[in-house]
Amino acid sequence: MKSYKVAIFASGSGTNAENIIRYFQDYPNFSVPVVITNNSDAGVIERAKKLQIPCEILTVGDINTSTIILPLLQNKYEATHIVLAGYLKLIPEHIIDAYPKKILNIHPALLPKYGGKGMYGSAVHRSVKENGEIESGISIHIVSSHYDSGEIIFQATSPIVAEDSPKDIEKKVRQLEIKYYPQVIRNWCLQKE
């Protein structure tokens, strides 16, 4: 049976990262060999430690330097795929070239709306609310060299009612992330073979 080693890049609290790691515990041919973060204060570090997953804290400069990041991913951790779980920096070309169509991201809105630089977290949900949208959701897409512009492989929606605050919208979107992201990652890895 082929094994899949999915490295996770994260910058924040790590709820999506933890959810993915726990989901893969039920699939012996899937594992998360490493969590990579550019934020030494990120909550994901503690979550990874609790789940006994190695966590590498790197500067953006390290990640942007192919001779540092690629040996780490390819040789030390033997990652076959990469998943972004709240990682907010642009993925450099050398990583995209090393993992062609093998890097996935989740965005907390229905792309192509509300994507691009600076559109993450509460900024997205505020914009959705201000524009009077009647639904929001998640978009899971292949990572390209531009923010939120890669091929969308999955979307799920949630209705928005007039009374919903940006926080309410965020909660609805978070539920979709938790429900769908791990299984979409698994199916995507299996389909690419």
Q: Structural class per helix/strand content?
A: alpha/beta
Number of strands: 8
Helix content: 25-40%
Report the major sheet.
8 strands, mixed
Tell me what the CATH architecture is.
Answer: 3-Layer(aba) Sandwich
CATH class: Alpha Beta
Helices and strands, in order, run as EHEEHEHHEHEHEEH
- The total tally of domains equals 1
Question: What oligomeric state do the depicted chains represent?
Answer: single chain
* CATH H-level homologous superfamily name: Formyl transferase, N-terminal domain
CATH topology: Rossmann fold
Question: Which shape, going by the Cα principal axes?
Answer: globular
Give the mean pLDDT. 95
* SS summary, helix count: 7
Low-pLDDT runs of 5+ residues are none
Instruction: State the end-to-end CA separation.
Output: 12 Å
Radius of gyration: 16 Å
Content of β-strand: 15-25%
Short key terms for the protein model shown above:
alpha/beta; 7 helices; 8-stranded mixed sheet; 8 strands; Rossmann fold; single chain
Notes on the structure:
Strand 1 (4-9), helix 1 and strand 2 form a beta-alpha-beta unit. Helix 1 (15-24) packs parallel to helix 7 and helix 6 (122-130) crosses helix 7. The protein is of the alpha/beta class. It has helices spanning 15-24, 43-50, 60-63, 66-76, 93-98, 122-130, 166-191; strands spanning 4-9, 30-31, 35-37, 55-57, 81-84, 103-107, 135-142, 152-159. The model has no long low-confidence stretch (mean pLDDT 95). It has a single domain (4-110, 139-157, 177-191), classed as Rossmann fold (3-Layer(aba) Sandwich). It is 38% helix and 20% strand. The protein is built from seven helices and eight strands.
